[in-house]
Design brief:
It contains one helix and four strands. The chain is an alpha+beta fold. The protein has one domain. It has a four-stranded mixed beta sheet with strand order 2-1-3-4. The longest helix has 9 residues. The chain is globular, with a radius of gyration of 12 Å. The chain starts with 10 loop residues before the first strand and ends in a 22-residue tail after the last strand.
Length: 82
């Protein structure tokens, strides 16, 4: 997957919710730019951005059923339960 704005292929998957900040895999993926934090508020029925370019910071939405959605560079790190 490439950024539609600048063409970079250094793309992060945006995660929403409250991640487990103590999880080593989360820390590695976040530090390397594989994932980015989108905030704790998940809005139902709204197409929130799911990808962020690490070069130009452009954010965009990729539908879960899109062929590009399986292009994710990272798995879903554990989230903390409240």
């Amino acid at each position: 997957m490439k950024c539609p704005q600048c063409g970079s292929d250094w793309i992060a998957e945006i995660l929403y919710g409250f991640p487990d900040f103590n999880n080593e895999q989360f820390q590695q993926d976040h530090a390397s730019g594989k994932i980015a934090l989108g905030g704790c508020v998940v809005m139902e029925g709204v197409e929130q951005p799911t990808r962020r370019c690490n070069d130009c910071n452009h954010e965009w939405y990729v539908a879960a059923d899109s062929p590009d959605s399986s292009d994710s560079q990272a798995g879903s790190p554990p989230m903390q339960s409240k």
